[in-house]
Each structure stands twice: as C-alpha cells, then as structure tokens.
C-alpha cells in the first residue's frame, strides 16, 4: 500500500484520546512510507493527522473544493494541495489516489465518506481495505447498527467483513497492509470485526 485516505472530523471531539490517536495515525502512515490523503483542512482531527505525518517526514496530499476555503482553513504546509470544483470531485479524486481508507471519529461528513467507500466495495467497484479507528469505542454504535441491518435481512454478513475495526492506529494499519485483513504475524481464520 502506497497511500491511505483518512476521513476525519474537522473538530477535535471532547476526549483527548481522539487527538492522540489521530496524531499516532499520521505518524504511522508516514513511518510506513505511505502518503496520507485527506480533505486539506488545518482544523480538527484532519489537521492533527496531517501535521503528525508531516512532522514524521511523510507526504500529505490535501484535496478541497473551492467553496470550502472560507469555512475550513486550508493547510498551507502540505506536500501537495489539490483544488477541486465540488465534493463529488473531491471524493472521486481521493478514491482514485488512495490504496485504502481509514475513518477516524467524525461527524456526518465522515460517515458519508465512509459509507460511500463501503457501498462501492459492496457492489464491487473496488477491493481496497476500509478501516475504522475505534477510539474510545466511538464506532461501536455504528457497528451495532450494521449488525442490526444484517440480522434484519437488509445486509449480508459479508458486508461486516468489508470493515477492519481496531482501537490502535498501528494495529489498524498492520491489518490493512496484510493480504486478508489479519494481523501480519497471525495465521489461521479470524473474523474481521
């Protein structure tokens, strides 16, 4: 894997662990020699992950629609900044450039980006790994909702298998880089979630 697209909140959240894990994620991506691709903001967990990757010698690409320049302060220290027309072009560019996706805690925008790449994987448009960094159990309610959709017959068990869930940034990247989503040192069968 050469690049990971990170979906994250433009806010920090209330718990300090959110920023700590966002920073660790950026560091791990850089130390693995991968490029971090994200929304281009200097705010929130997005900015924290980008700053940590840059501080660790990594390369960071930000992609932002012109209309967001007023609301989000553009990160001016990035390796590469790509200006696009709208959110659709932003997501298409992220998808094209990324070899995998990680969602940090975030709000509706993060959920929307996450579900789009999951939907695309579900219908076979890509086979790139999709990870959730489950800081403080943030994504537990979302996983329970997806499990509920399986139990109620609206989704298949294989849809759960599209998600790699970890509480630690290093463990998440390790699983995403392994051929089948298992820890690199592990052999045998294991559930993804």
From TrEMBL:
This protein's record includes keyword Kinase: no
SUPFAM superfamilies documented for this protein: MCP/YpsA-like
E.C. number: 3.2.2.n1
Keywords: Cytokinin biosynthesis, Hydrolase
Highest taxon in the source lineage: Bacteria
UniProt-listed InterPro entries: LOG, LOG_fam
Main enzyme class: hydrolase
Family: Belongs to the LOG family.
Protein name (record): Cytokinin riboside 5'-monophosphate phosphoribohydrolase
Provenance organism: Paenibacillus enshidis
């Amino acid at each position: 894997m050469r690049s990971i697209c990170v979906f994250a909140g433009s806010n920090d959240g209330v718990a300090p662990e959110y920023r700590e894990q966002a920073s660790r994620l950026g560091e791990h991506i850089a130390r693995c020699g991968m490029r971090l691709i994200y929304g281009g903001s200097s705010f929130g967990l997005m900015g924290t992950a980008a700053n940590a990757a840059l501080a660790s010698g990594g390369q960071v690409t930000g992609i932002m629609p012109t209309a967001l320049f007023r609301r989000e302060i553009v990160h001016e220290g990035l390796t590469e900044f790509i200006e696009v027309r709208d959110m659709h072009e932003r997501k298409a560019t992220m998808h094209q450039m990324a070899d995998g996706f990680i969602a940090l805690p975030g709000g509706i925008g993060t959920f929307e980006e996450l579900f789009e790449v999951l939907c695309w994987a579900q219908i076979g448009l890509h086979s790139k790994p999709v990870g959730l960094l489950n800081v403080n159990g943030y994504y537990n309610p979302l996983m329970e909702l997806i499990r509920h959709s399986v139990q109620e017959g609206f989704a298949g068990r294989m849809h759960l298998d599209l998600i790699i869930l970890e509480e630690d940034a290093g463990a998440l990247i390790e699983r995403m880089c392994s051929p089948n989503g298992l820890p690199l040192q592990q052999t045998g069968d294991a559930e993804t979630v």
